[in-house]
Amino acid sequence: MRIKNEKHGIKFIRLTVILLLLGASIFGGLKLYEGWNEKRKLDNEKDRLEQYEPEEDDSNRQKIRDLLARYPDVVGWLKIENSVISYPFVQTANNNDYLHKTLDGKTLSAGTLFMDYRNHADFSDFNSVIYGHHMQNGSMFGTLKNFINQKEFWDVHRRGWIYLPYQTLELEFFAVITVHETDQTIYGLIYPDNTSKQNFLSHLEQKANRWRDISVTADDRFVCLSTCATATSPYRYVLIGRVVKK
Fold first, then answer.
1. Of 41, 161, 194, 220, which one is least surrounded by beta carbons within 10 A?
2. pLDDT above 60 for 1
C-alpha cells in the first residue's frame, strides 16, 4: 500500500510540474502575442500618420496644419536627427488623456507623446516638457536611454526639431540626466527670476549623465524630453535641448 501511495504521489508531482510548465508556456506565449500585437498597432498608427510627417525643410508647414485640422489636440511634430523618434505630440487640460490612446481615440499602450498641460503651446516658457513612454521595442521614447548608455549614440544625435503650424524650432541637445519623478527643478515649471533659472542650469550640470558645453544661459529656452527609466521605476530619463528659432 505504501509503495502504491508513493507511486500516486510521484504521478501527482509530475502532473503538477507538467501543468505548471504548460501554464508558464501559455502565459509566455500570451505575453509574446500581446507584445507583437501592440507593436503591430503602433506600426499601423505610425504608417497612418506618415503622410503628415514634416520634411526637415518644411518651410510652408502645410502638413502640420493639415494634421491639426484633423486632430485639434495636436500641438506639433517632434523629430530627432538620425533617430526613430519622429512623432506628433498633443496637449490637453491634463497629462492623462493620451497616456494610452492614439490620436483617434483607440487604445494603445504606447499612447501618444504629450506636452505638459501647464506649458504654453508656443514654447515661450523657460522650460517646456514633452513626455513619452519608454517602450521596450524602442518606439516612442524607448531610445532615450541610449543617450546615457551609448556615447556614440550621444555623439551623433545632437539636434532635434519641433514643427509647429507657424514656426520650426531647432533643439540643440546638451544634457541627459536621470532624476526622480518628484524633481521640482525639472517638473515644477516655475522659474520666476534669473536665480531660479540659473539653479535649473546648475541642477542639470550636476545631475548630467552626459553634458555638452554649448554655453547655455538663463536667457535661453529649453525643452525636456522625459520618459520612465522602467515601467515601475520612480526615476526618469530626461534629454534636454536648447531652443533655437529657425
1. 194
2. no
Residue 237 lies in a domain: yes
CB-based contact 160:79 (threshold 8 Å): yes
pLDDT tens digits, one per residue of 38-50: 666 677 777 888 8
Which grid coordinates are listed for 41?
498597432
In a domain, 10, yes or no: no
pTM check: above 0.90: no
Q: Nearest Cα to 225, choosing from 138, 115, 101?
A: 115
pLDDT tens sequence across 154-195: 999 999 999 999 999 999 999 999 999 999 999 999 999 999
* CATH code for the domain in which residue 104 is found: 2.40.260.10
Domain around 201:
53-245
Residue 196 makes CB contacts below 8 A (sequence gap 6+) with 190
Place of cell 502532473: 15
Number of domains in the chain: 1
